Amino acid sequence: MKRIDFENGTITGNILGAALPMLVAQILNLLYNIVDRIYIARIPEIGTAALGAVGLCFPIIVIITAFSNLFGTGGAPLFSIFRGKKDPDTARRIMNTSFTMLCVCAVILMAVGFLFARPILILFGASAEAIVYAYPYMMLYLIGTLPSMIAVGMNPFINAQGYSSIGMLSVAIGAGTNLVLDPLFIFALGLGVRGAAIATVISQCISAALVVRCLVKETGPLRLDFRQLKIYPIKLKQIMQVGIPAGIQGMLFSLANVTVQSSVNSFGEVIMAGSSAAISIEQFIYSNINAFYQANVAFTSQNYGAGDYRRIKKIAMISVVTGVVTTELLSVLAVYFGPQLLGIYSPSAEVVAAGMVRLRWIALFYGLDAIMDVIVGSLRGVGYNILPMLVTLMGACASRLIWLSTVFRLPAYHRIEMV
């Protein structure tokens, strides 16, 4: 497939050429969990309860993804910078270190999850009824921690070499597999919630295998060579300097979401299910933001390595404009077609109405998030890591926690719209 040249060509065309496959890849990646929810909601008699329960697993999944990003989004910008400097040996060491650390962390996270999944889910607000469905789903999902982290964490290295279309295909094949296996395991084999988790794990294994195959088959000095896999301490330190702020940001963001979810759960099963369905739709919108963030990081870091600072300013401006416009377009469509989209997740009119409350209050303002995230991508691409983390945490996390612990507790404001 055609490789995108980050240092030459029209900036707008190249950004769209990189961002659109990344967007498609992320949307398809969401299908791993979203398709599960669609089918789970239609399990006879227990659908609504099971859907809300599985939504409780989302913060744990986000934490696993945050660790994937620690070495994926932490290593890929450095990889691109040294590609721009025409230093393939250093770039390869960074990729090898990232892959090795992904494997090590996956084993640790899986072990911790197996040991503490039940108390963690209870901490997140799982009731005695919800834990019946959330716990088996989470335990089976954890089996796929390693392939999930490889697929998510190593895809940025494919994108960083200009092969965003190949990265998209690796995810598309995995998502297609999930679409086929979900009804088979959930309904035909009668495995219910467990079947949804099994289908997801198999799909993740396929995506991870395709990602690894792409990196191994790459010709030249930037291929993944298992014989050279090791941890290079200096490179690990550099990766951590970039990845830890992003990882901390992701984990604290997840913890803030836990607090929000606990507040939502206090309104009952229907509100919880509606919120879970609305979050699934919002993830599509955020995928667009993240696609332009990733494209911006890839372009900025390689041009930074090449010393083309003038081009970096143009990349930032074009990324912000295109990111905001496309995000707001998707947000308007999500609200306009909200009842139909929410109806895909649950046939209950009450669940749809509850989901629309969240969409109307949140979706239309995602353009502000696009500005914040894409600019953060520019800063990370040139090596600034602590400042964007602090800005994001203060704006997106601290403000929500302060609101929920003060104003939301007042009787006049204790309603779902205020969450």
Brief write-up:
The protein has 419 residues and is mostly helical. It has 15 helices and no strands.
Descriptive report:
The chain is built from 15 helices and no strands.
Overall morphology: globular
What sequence of helices (H) and strands (E) makes up the elements?
HHHHHHHHHHHHHHH
Strand content: under 5%
The computed structural class is: mainly alpha
Provide the low-confidence segments as ranges.
none
Radius of gyration: 21 Å
Query: How many beta strands in the DSSP annotation?
Result: 0
Structure annotation, total helices: 15
Largest sheet: none
- Helical proportion? over 70%
Average pLDDT level: 84
**Separation of termini?**
46 Å
Keywords:
mainly alpha; 419 residues; 82% helix; globular
What order do the helices and strands come in, and which of them pair?
Elements (H helix, E strand, L loop, with lengths): L10 H31 L5 H9 L2 H27 L3 H36 L4 H16 L1 H16 L3 H25 L4 H25 L15 H33 L3 H38 L2 H28 L1 H8 L3 H14 L3 H16 L4 H20 L14
